[in-house]
Amino acid sequence: MSRGSMQGVIPRRHSRPVQVGGLWIGGDAPIVVQSMTNTDTADFEATLHQIQALAQAGSELVRVTVNTAEAARQVPELRQALDRSGYDVPLVGDFHFNGHKLLSEFPHCARALAKYRINPGNVGQGSRRDEQFARLIELARSYDKPIRIGVNWGSLDPQVMARCMDENARLAEPHPVSWVMRQALVTSALESAAQAVDWGLAPERITLSCKVSGVQDLIAVYRDLARQCDYPLHLGLTEAGLGSKGIVASTAAMAVLLQEGIGDTLRVSLTPEPGGDRTLEVRVAQEILQTQGLRAFTPQVIACPGCGRTTSTYFQSLAQQIEGYLRRQMPLWRHRYPGVEHLQVAVMGCVVNGPGESKLANIGISLPGSGERPVAPVYVDGEKTVTLKGERIAEEFQALVETYVARRYGVGT
Question: Where is the IspG TIM-barrel domain (predicted)?
Fold first, then answer.
């Protein structure tokens, strides 16, 4: 029995499906991985290359900032260039402050985008707010585009917050300010969606999000939001941070919600190092979903952490080498070998757990630990098939993996 067969199925919260380009979000559709560029959209080459890299990494939607006339002019050019190069990833326009003007003035941009992201806290103040929000909804209807109403606690509609604060103050036992802010986020999202529907946008064209940067806040907000609506929900911990902190915080928050069946699409908002790889946020999102058994994107390598019985670093190097090899092969394998994303490969470092873990994987190798015989048995579908030794263990094991993939997942096999 492979490790993948041990995972249960998590019941999903019911949500109405929304079509975005060729994708579906919500309903019975798989949870969708999103990302966002951090280039100036007016810089055509830089933005094109980053979208292609994100799509190549597995991002199924890519959001781009549309904040200036120059950015709006580039969107249809980007769409055409992506289509010519074989990237059909839908583009989502991120609008703040002037989205109603840009979409009105640049119809080619409005058509090229697959979805509009609208922050109700940034569409205007006072009486201008409803007027400009209504214009955005009118444009979405005109071009038959879905929208994401994306509330963010860093730019929460001040009128909604003030109203919620006033209502709380009138209670016999007022709630803490943090509770009121969470309520205001949910209220802003739901009231904005209701307005959009009143202005003629079909409910099947709306996705909601309420972004915060605190783990417990995010869990509380989305639980509340999920109880009150059946719109698809976009998950994301905003301003998650750098490196391991951002990865851990995003995983801690979203894993809880996903385990409860909440969430139809997600983005991991990591702050990259200067010049860092933007695709890391895609890989982390995929790994969150894959480790929970919700989706499979790429073969997984199981490797032991090492201990005093594994003083050699050989098993670590081999695990890293095999993982990199599998990831590099996936763009080709995804089409040639359907189902290969479920493959489990074990690279273990001693005889204590090595043979057992290797038997549980589809294919696994148990390398010798300190003081053990310099041989490495290989297990395929639970059975020992060959023992490797000598200086070419890494190359020989990789060849065995290639052979297994072709035999197990090749079309017609």
Answer: 16-285
Helix (H, G, I), strand (E, B) or coil at 149: strand
pLDDT at residue 1 above 80? no
Q: The pTM is what?
A: 0.94
pLDDT (tens digit, 9 = 90+) per residue, 246-260? 999 999 999 999 999
Angle between helices 177-198 and 215-228 (to 10 degrees): 40
DSSP secondary structure string for all residues of 237-303: BTT-EEHHHHHHHHHHHHHHHHHTT--SEE---EEPPTT--TTHHHHHHHHHHHHTTS---S-EEEE
* DSSP 8-state symbol, 212: B
Does 229 count as an annotated binding residue?
no
Q: Max alpha carbon distance in the chain (Å)?
A: 79
- The values of phi and psi at residue 365, to 5°, are -130, 140
Strands (E), 21-169: 23-25, 32-36, 61-65, 91-95, 115-118, 147-152
Q: Is the pLDDT of residue 147 over 60?
A: yes
Decide: 316 and 306 in contact? Cβ < 8 Å: yes
All structural domains of the chain, each given as residue ranges with its CATH number in brackets, are 18-292 (3.20.20.20), 300-410 (3.30.413.10)
| Total number of residues shown for the chain | 413
Distance CA 400, CA 360 (A): 17
Quote the Cα angle for 350-353-355, to 5°: 80
Residue 357 marked as a ligand binder: yes
H or E element, residue 349: none
Query: Residue type for 371, please?
Result: G
- DSSP of 193-207: HHHHHHTT--GGGEE
| φ/ψ (deg, to 5) at 159 | -70, -40
